[in-house]
Amino acid sequence: MELIYIIGKRKGTPRNVFSEAEMQIRKMGWVAINPLEEILKFNEVDEEGLNSAEEESRFLIPFFNKCSGVYLLPGWESCQSARKEVAAADEASKRIMYQPQQVSIDDIIRAAEEVTGMSFDKIRARTRKGTIVEIRRAIFYLAWKYQSTTFVALAQMFGMDHTSVIHNRNTAKRLLSAGDERTTEVITQIKERLIA
């Protein structure tokens, strides 16, 4: 089984960005090495932990060396340690893969329309009908997850206040964490359509 190391800006990048990349790599049939998770595991065991980017990079060398390829997250160019890892991968003739383009809000809305069979006008209509509210929540959650747009831009698009968008996103997060089947199903279906 081929091992793929994820390269990206580790500091300041939400953990879910690396986790999503890990899932993408698995879907391609490979095993992912997620450096953020490896650092977190180490810091849980070692009381001193890793205190600098340089220490993290040294710690990650054995993981990097085991891999036959690397998967680059958007924005890797702005991080010095990521640039060094890419240069090392290139020098070692490792496979270099780029994460597909970031998912746009239009992609998310189109996927929601395809999954539900509803038009955007119907989804954004001022109604509290359960199914439509669930779909809007899913769209707001996925837009946040994929960093597709701001809450203010979403609010304008849907004719709402940005605090309502945030509330709906938070509700979707809470329901997902609680294992709500309907919320999980709607979000999963839209995500699968985005990935396909």
UniProtKB/TrEMBL annotation:
<dbReference type="InterPro" id="IPR010921">
    <property type="entry name" value="Trp_repressor/repl_initiator"/>
</dbReference>
<feature type="domain" description="Chromosomal replication initiator DnaA C-terminal">
    <location>
        <begin position="104"/>
        <end position="172"/>
    </location>
</feature>
<dbReference type="InterPro" id="IPR025518">
    <property type="entry name" value="DUF4406"/>
</dbReference>
<dbReference type="Pfam" id="PF08299">
    <property type="entry name" value="Bac_DnaA_C"/>
</dbReference>
<dbReference type="InterPro" id="IPR013159">
    <property type="entry name" value="DnaA_C"/>
</dbReference>
<protein>
    <recommendedName>
        <fullName>Chromosomal replication initiator DnaA C-terminal domain-containing protein</fullName>
    </recommendedName>
</protein>
<dbReference type="GO" id="GO:0005524">
    <property type="term" value="F:ATP binding"/>
</dbReference>
<dbReference type="Pfam" id="PF14359">
    <property type="entry name" value="DUF4406"/>
</dbReference>
<dbReference type="GO" id="GO:0006275">
    <property type="term" value="P:regulation of DNA replication"/>
</dbReference>
<dbReference type="GO" id="GO:0006270">
    <property type="term" value="P:DNA replication initiation"/>
</dbReference>
<dbReference type="GO" id="GO:0043565">
    <property type="term" value="F:sequence-specific DNA binding"/>
</dbReference>
